[in-house]
């Protein structure tokens, strides 16, 4: 990647001897391709990026009926000048576009925006009391745009994606009726006569750097299932845990398994 007078080598090529090839939004989500989102952030600019981050609930309390919720932070050039007395540079936009830099997000905030993708563009206030009335607002996102994001998240949890612990996710539950879309027939596990049901999962993994470059990373994954009629959105953060796929992914898998085998 070339930025002004500076050129940056391809880390993936150095690690694996090949490149990702042509990358669109679906593949960028599937493969967690930072460069795609660097350039997307550069194209739209920090003002619009921060504006939509806030629309999705970043940088504000969700209003959950629980004390102690943190606001998090959705930074922009105004914030940077006011708080840090620094100008905003393209590198800041790059970091923000991949959810790093000065962004601070709680697992609940990430779970809430995952729900926006899952439920067709509505941002809903979370609550613990099931008797609370639903409080959602439509964000006015074109359905075709949501479909592209959902497709990328579906491929992230399929062969070749980053969410490998959730590839071919299946459960043992004779009460789940296969419908060919949300619940699929799956062969029984080796040595088992119990029929299994395959459930397509949509997900996005994350490996968040913090502090000193040699420190461990935070492991993230956010997911929802099943594909067409989501019942559950799960977000897992393991602080200083390592990679999202290998550390947070198995935890999300067990939560989903418990839900669908209940």
UniProtKB/TrEMBL annotation:
This is Penicillin-binding protein 2, penicillin-binding protein 2. Gene3D superfamilies: DD-peptidase/beta-lactamase superfamily. GO terms for cellular component: plasma membrane. The keyword Protein biosynthesis does not apply. Its EC number is 2.4.1.129. It comes from Candidatus Gottesmanbacteria bacterium GW2011_GWA2_43_14. GO terms for molecular function: glycosyltransferase activity; penicillin binding; peptidoglycan L,D-transpeptidase activity. It holds the Pfam family Transpeptidase. One of its GO terms (biological process) is cell wall organization. PANTHER family: PEPTIDOGLYCAN D,D-TRANSPEPTIDASE, PEPTIDOGLYCAN D,D-TRANSPEPTIDASE MRDA. Keywords: Glycosyltransferase, Transferase. Residues 6-256 form the Penicillin-binding protein transpeptidase domain. The keyword Glycosyltransferase applies.
């Amino acid at each position: 990647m070339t930025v002004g007078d500076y050129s940056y080598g391809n880390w993936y090529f150095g690690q694996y001897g090949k490149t990702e090839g042509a990358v669109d939004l679906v593949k960028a989500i599937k493969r967690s391709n930072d460069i795609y989102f660097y350039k997307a952030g550069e194209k739209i600019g920090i003002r619009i990026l921060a504006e939509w981050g806030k629309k999705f609930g970043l940088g504000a309390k969700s209003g959950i009926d629980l004390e102690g919720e943190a606001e998090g932070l959705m930074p922009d050039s105004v914030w940077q000048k006011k708080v840090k007395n620094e100008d905003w540079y393209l590198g800041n936009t790059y970091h923000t576009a991949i959810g790093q830099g000065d962004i601070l997000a709680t697992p609940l905030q990430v779970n809430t925006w995952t729900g926006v993708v899952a439920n067709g563009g509505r941002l809903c206030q979370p609550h613990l009391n099931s008797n609370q009335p639903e409080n959602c607002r439509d964000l006015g996102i074109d359905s075709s745009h949501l479909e592209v994001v959902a497709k990328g998240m579906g491929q992230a949890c399929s062969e070749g994606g980053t969410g490998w612990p959730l590839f071919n996710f299946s459960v043992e539950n004779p009460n789940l009726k296969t419908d060919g879309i949300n619940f699929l027939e799956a062969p029984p596990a080796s040595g088992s006569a119990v029929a299994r049901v395959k459930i397509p999962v949509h997900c996005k993994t994350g490996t968040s750097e913090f502090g000193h470059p040699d420190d461990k990373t935070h492991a993230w994954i956010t997911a929802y299932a099943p594909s067409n009629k989501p019942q559950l959105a799960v977000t897992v953060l393991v602080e200083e845990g390592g990679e999202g796929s290998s550390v947070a992914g198995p935890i999300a898998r067990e939560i989903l398994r418990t839900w669908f085998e209940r």
